[in-house]
Design brief:
391 residues, globular, DNA replication, two-stranded antiparallel ribbon, 43% helix, ATP binding, alpha/beta, P-loop_NTPase, AAA family ATPase, nucleotide-binding
Length: 391
């Protein structure tokens, strides 16, 4: 931790400690520069990327593991560091009398949850490779791809593209991903990141290596939680006992563990406490649906869908007795400028995607099929806070 971070941790407001020093460090959808306890995975990735240090492209690869195992955290951190290599001088001795300075490839990370369409995918890659802003409107997919081809063709070292969350609902289809890369110049190497085992995906037919990321062991997850707390909370706000309780409940899923920490912190902050309590953690765990959809999926939805969900989490249980009642309550929100028909369509659409769930009412006194309540498959407190922080 650098000096500036240490100073920030000692800052006080009105003479009292601030529980939350940095929301971003606590966010379960944010990744830090140095992920905790993932050294062996990092070494396996570095072994795969070893050709880069001689100025060459590595072969294609597939990184896989269960949800919350830290795949995204490790890859984003590694790519952030590797992308700085082209600006560095790294002389490689070829003979006793001659030296050459190779040029490293560029590194681009793409979240398939946000770039499922062909246009969004090419836009994300090109935007990461050029200094000028790439327009999002007034340009077609073919023109965008042509600009990307020109940029890649003019690159001597090439580019390595990591595509995260492949194979998930509302993500890039595996076949489409292979086709998109097949249409790019030959100086492109890719790293696909997903949850399926290698034998269950067609991607391994186009990759030279598969790199497995295991679920976090309990003590590793405790370290992850304590690291995030040291970055985002005041001193001694989270003790090891509470961190162990969260890690034991999360069973190796860092996303769920960090979400519980985030929600518990929000409850403690709202209550004006300087430290988290067991009650805060228990309340946060009670708020977690099982199964819980990733907050990254929710926050990757289009803005109008997120606005509907933001209104949904503030709808009282009484007004959520049926889809129709929920739709009416959301439509009355000042934050949603959509017709009731559109709101209802979005709710059904997100129920199909698993973002919300339609739970049949237990009432049996009325004729016909009982109405369905709309229940979020994510913790409302976490989404509400993260959504509001981004506005």
């Amino acid at each position: 931790m650098d000096i500036e971070a240490r100073i920030k941790r000692r800052q006080r407001r009105n003479g009292h400690p601030r529980l939350i020093q940095d929301y971003e460090s606590l966010s379960p959808v944010a990744h830090i520069d140095e992920p905790a306890d993932r050294g062996p995975v990092l070494e396996r990735l570095l072994d795969h990327f070893d050709p880069v240090f001689d100025g060459n492209l590595p072969p294609n690869a597939y990184v896989y593991g269960p949800a919350g195992s830290g795949k995204s955290a490790v890859v984003t951190a590694l790519f952030s560091h590797l992308d700085r290599l082209p600006s560095e001088t790294r002389a490689v001795i070829q003979t006793s009398t001659r030296a050459q300075t190779p040029t490293s490839p560029a590194f681009v990370y793409v979240d398939a949850r946000r770039t499922a369409s062909e246009f969004a995918f090419y836009h994300a890659v090109l935007d990461a490779l050029v200094d000028e802003s790439v327009p999002e409107h007034g340009i077609g997919t073919d023109r965008l791809r042509a600009r990307l081809d020109d940029r890649l063709t003019g690159s001597r070292a090439g580019v390595v593209i990591a595509v995260d969350h492949v194979g998930e609902p509302r993500s890039i289809d595996e076949g489409d991903l292979v086709d998109r890369f097949a249409g790019l110049p030959s100086n492109v190497s890719w790293l696909a990141i997903g949850r399926d085992d290698p034998e269950e995906t067609d991607l391994t037919g186009y990759t030279a290596a598969s790199i497995h990321v295991d679920r976090y062991q309990r003590q590793m997850l405790v370290d992850v939680l304590m690291t995030r707390a040291s970055l985002g909370l005041s001193q001694q706000a989270l003790d090891h006992g509470l961190a162990r309780s969260i890690a034991e409940w999360a069973e190796g899923n860092a996303h769920d563990g960090l979400t519980v920490l985030f929600v518990a912190t929000d409850h403690a902050s709202e209550a004006g406490r300087a430290r988290l309590t067991e009650a805060d953690v228990e309340r946060a765990i009670d708020e977690m649906p099982q199964p819980c959809i990733s907050l990254g999926v929710v926050l990757g939805l289009p803005a109008n869908r997120q606005a509907v969900l933001r209104a949904l989490v503030d709808v009282s249980p009484e007004d959520r007795s049926s889809v129709t009642a929920t739709t009416a309550a959301i439509s009355e929100s000042s934050a949603v400028d959509l017709s009731e028909g559109t709101v209802k369509r979005f709710l059904y659409e997100m129920a199909e995607a698993g973002v919300v769930e339609r739970v049949q009412s237990e009432a049996r006194h009325e004729q016909g099929r009982p109405p369905s309540r709309v229940v979020p498959r994510f913790p409302p407190t976490a989404f509400r806070r993260l959504y509001d922080l981004r506005q």
